[in-house]
Amino acid sequence: MSLHFAALLRRHGLLVAFALFLALVAVQAEAFLTPSNVLDVLRQVSIIGMMALGVTFVVVAGRLDLSVGSMLTLLTVIVVDRTNAFGPGLAILVTLLAGLAAGAWNGLLVGVFRLNALIVTLAMLSFLQGLTLAYSGGSNVNVADGTTWFAAFGRGSLWGIPAPVVIFALSAAVLAFVLKRTRFGRAIFAVGGNETAATYSGIDARLVVFAAYCLSGLTTAIAAIIMGSRVMGAQNTIGQGYELTVLAGVILGGTSLLGGSGSIGRTVLGVAMLGFIQNGLLLMGYPYYVQWLVTWGIIILAVWIDLGAKRGRILA
Amino acid sequence: MTTPILTVAGITKTFPGVRALSDVSFDVRPGEVHALVGENGAGKSTLMKVLAGLHQPDAGRIVHHGREVAIASPLDARTRGILLIHQELSLSPELSVAENIYLGAWPTNRFGILRKRAMREAAAAALEALGCDFGPDVRVGTLSIARQQMVEIARAQAFNANLVIFDEPTASLTEAERAQLFATVAQLRSQGVGIVYISHKMDEIFSITDRITVLRDGTVQGTVETAATDVDSITRMMIGRDLSSYFHRARADFGEETLGIEGLHVPGLVHGVDLSVRAGEVLGLYGLVGAGRSELVEAIFGIRRASAGRMRWRGREIPLPTPRQAVDLGLALVPESRKEQGLVLGLGGRDNITLPHLARFSTLGVMRPGAETRVFDRFRDELSIKTTGPDQPVGLLSGGNQQKFVLAKWLCAEPRLVILDEPTRGIDVGSKSAIHELIAGLAEQGLAVIVISSEMPEVLGVSHRILTMADRRITGSFTGDEMTEETLIGAVSAGPAALPSAAE
Amino acid sequence: MSVAETPRRAVAAGDWIMRNHIWVFLALTVAVFSFASPYFLTVNNLGNLLTQGAFIGILAVGMTLVILNGEIDLSVGATLALSCALAIGLQTSIGTWPAVIAALLAGAGLGLLNGLVVALSGMHSFVVTLGALIGIRGLVFVYTGENALMVEDFAYTEIAEVYLGPLSLTALVFFGLAAAFQWLLTNTRHGRETYAVGDNVAAAHDAGINVKRHKIVNFTICGTMAAVAGILLSMRLGTAEPNAGRIWELWTIIAVVLGGTRLSGGYGSLWMTVGGVLTLAVLRNGLRLLNTPNYVELMVMGGVLLLALALDRALLTREGAR
């Protein structure tokens, strides 16, 4: 019995710990596992989650994207401001294209010119922050007319499920399929797992990395649309620090920063864990920042256990 | 008679699936240059790693200066005065020459502060003694490979090494640098240092060594005085088996030319190569490590950009391809390094097989797992690959099974030309003959095959025609009765000296 | 002979510029701002500039050691905030100097923890210190209860008002630490190990260097430097904001990389880092003097960083071709 439990813990340590945590909170706070609270948590994590979907592709391809936080800020400002100027339809199109362009720039430098991903996206973080201030003139923007269908993305709902959750779930399903079942997804794994072998197999690693960054820009644009619609405005600091939270979610799910392994399902799990930890601790009466301490412990433990399990398997 | 510096007795070392060394014994005397020769995979590198403390033997004794010792680590080896000079140099390019000579053993005072002057002076003395033309303050990264090698030799000088092991030291040296190295070796010998010299180049072995120990399949075939033997008998000892019974050569039934190359040039790597191979033909490409064989086929496959060259593919003149275009044309390159170039170790066997052919196994970009699994099943049975299932990461398989997956990966798309770069390196004898069978089978099905090998019997046993390469050029072409060990060794091992421009 | 000498000397000069490009950058920026603004090249402004830059500078001293090892530390901003809070918050209960020492020990301890986890688990330091960044910030909030702590004894803020000519205490500490650690890098066993480990870890290990212990020491130094910066910040401001030092870790990495230290390890120096820190400070200060909107500063930084990366790539290609 204890042996089985040890094996279970080693293989699914993270899930077991998470389940224990859920049970613990559920006992302490009745409101925790009610449908409305669960939906509320999911709604809260959907923006981080949306960004994490694209970043997962970048990380599985063995790269990093630290620019998504400031990209979110810029794109939120753009979508809000352009909605006021053009109306929602065109604004959303412009935002998606802008996200794609920002991702393409990262992809060009990291993928095609093979520059260090950390520095390129760090430079992009700084550059986009500047661009945001230049665009907004330093002041916050607000949606002038709150009655258009633009409000639907952040505030609407479908069959009682909040719209952000619907968008996040659909995107996750589509991208899980793309990563797991398509040529592109397979190429991502190959490039992240062994770039040389992928090249010898006729796969153009430069193009694959480029595409991964484009996707990351695109999911960040969708996140920005949800954000703009929910807040009905945009501040110049709205996405600050998100890049690290997004990475934390991806890592927490168990996707390795070394590339070549991971999945969308894991990322959704990781992001959801971040949300439920935050919510559970709040319901138990802890201040919100206690979640950060818990996240620290969980990241270290989860990755450590995962590494240990992999080492054990290779040796066995 | 002087007592040996080092005596190795009955060393055995087994890796999963391979017995690398079996009851190996030999000794090195002071002031002796002792050659260690053998084909690739004969166990030379394993033996040398045991002596340098990188591997621990399963059985056997090592006696150093009359005392039985266990060499626990490279540091331990160094403190005992045993120094290995690798092909991959163990230097820190950003540190100075003096700091590299004393790497990890920097002289310090009791506060941990470097005694820089003492270190520089000692390093300068070691460099001086070896006649080096650079000082102790130069950054190692700015030195040529030959000079970097001298830095490692200076370590031996500085630490008063009593045994120095050279592993293919001349592989990337020019003729003049080679002469300089030999002078250094002679100098070490005159100081009473014992030297183990590992090389493929017979002319070197016969010009500088005192005794030769021949290894084959992990066992010692014998130790002889260099003066009392000749190239032929050493070669026989190295190969030592009846070739015809081991290899299956394909029927000679050739069709039209499949691939023709003219004037292929990759700056610094491949110089003006012409080559032609016909359907049904097995073309052997023989040469020593560093001769430019891998670079040649990588240029054909588009992984390296050629600066000049024309290519004919099945009678049609075509531009030099990219790797993607090469795969689509029907070229297959089974690369030299399974783990680095051949496989994505974290993926399963099925995903590895279909990796070059994702378009064939997908519809509108969506993979068809059913079709993939069918191909996986077919090759698992045909090549009798031992794996638990299509998703088992190939990193967990043995070398032979991994190599079969690399082959399956390239054969599943029915290529017209298969290039195999060292297809049997580091795998056991049983898997080797299966791969030789496969090569013959491919040619008999009408494919053109190019086999690169450093193993003489292999290249002689499977090829219809052999091209030799040395110094990044083709140096000879042999068919039928011309294909013998002597002619091949003659065409490659003389090195640059055999070329008219460098004739003595 | 002399014919062959000249090109060689030209190549050597080219190499020197490639390897010390940051000083060329710095000279250029200083020249540009001196022309553009009459206020730039004044003793008063330069003194301010150095004080402002010194906080990132002190963080960058520790970061340089860690990056030379081929690792990274994302938690320095949070550690700075914690030390800042402890130095102020503990004063009432245990006294001024014990509080400062406690803050210093906290930074060292967190650095040690990071180093231990990296060395013992084999995890990438990016992951480990990303976790620490989030967690230590949590500690800061737990300790401060998300309020800014105020110093009660204003004599404490006087400590930072020590000046040597135009140089503030903070700037002096920065230059002192940079010089001390540059000396350590070039003259001690630990310093040479730092390069050997980042440059060719296999060779270092074979040469008998204890790589794990070595990295733990450098992470500890990095945490201690963050604490020093935090304590100086608490002296200068007299308050401890729970959000102090947010994203400073990124600015610190930018300063180090801008200087020319390579993220893959083994190449760089504190001399270069000082150049990177000063260039960053000059850019920020100069652009502000010119009343350029602050977005220009951010965009210029991004551009300069990419330029530094491109130069480094060029240097690598050149050395590879040799």
From TrEMBL, chain A:
One of its GO terms (cellular component) is plasma membrane. It is a multi-pass membrane protein. It comes from the Bacteria. Pfam families: BPD_transp_2 (PF02653). Coiled coil: none annotated. The chain crosses the membrane at residues 41-59, 64-80, 86-105, 117-138, 158-179, 207-229, 241-260, 267-286, 292-309. GO terms for molecular function: transmembrane transporter activity. InterPro entries: ABC_transp_permease. Keywords: Cell inner membrane, Cell membrane, Membrane, Transmembrane, Transmembrane helix, Transport. It is found in: Cell membrane. This is Ribose ABC transporter permease.
UniProtKB/TrEMBL annotation, chain B:
GO terms for cellular component: plasma membrane. One of its GO terms (molecular function) is ATP hydrolysis activity. The keyword Acyltransferase does not apply. Pfam families: ABC_tran (PF00005). It is found in: Cell membrane. Gene3D superfamilies: P-loop containing nucleotide triphosphate hydrolases. This is Sugar ABC transporter ATP-binding protein. The keyword Membrane applies. It comes from the Bacteria. CDD domains: ABC_Carb_Monos_I, ABC_Carb_Monos_II. PANTHER family: CARBOHYDRATE TRANSPORT ATP-BINDING PROTEIN MG119-RELATED, GALACTOFURANOSE TRANSPORTER ATP-BINDING PROTEIN YTFR. Residues 6-242, 254-496 form the ABC transporter domain. SUPFAM superfamilies: P-loop containing nucleoside triphosphate hydrolases (SSF52540).
Automatic annotation (TrEMBL), chain C:
Signal peptide: none annotated. One of its GO terms (cellular component) is plasma membrane. It is a multi-pass membrane protein. The keyword Membrane applies. One of its GO terms (molecular function) is transmembrane transporter activity. CDD domains: TM_PBP1_transp_AraH_like. The chain crosses the membrane at residues 21-43, 49-68, 75-94, 100-119, 126-143, 163-185, 216-238, 250-283, 295-316. It holds the Pfam family BPD_transp_2. PANTHER family: ABC TRANSPORTER PERMEASE PROTEIN YPHD-RELATED-RELATED (PTHR32196), RIBOSE IMPORT PERMEASE PROTEIN RBSC (PTHR32196:SF72). This is Sugar ABC transporter permease.
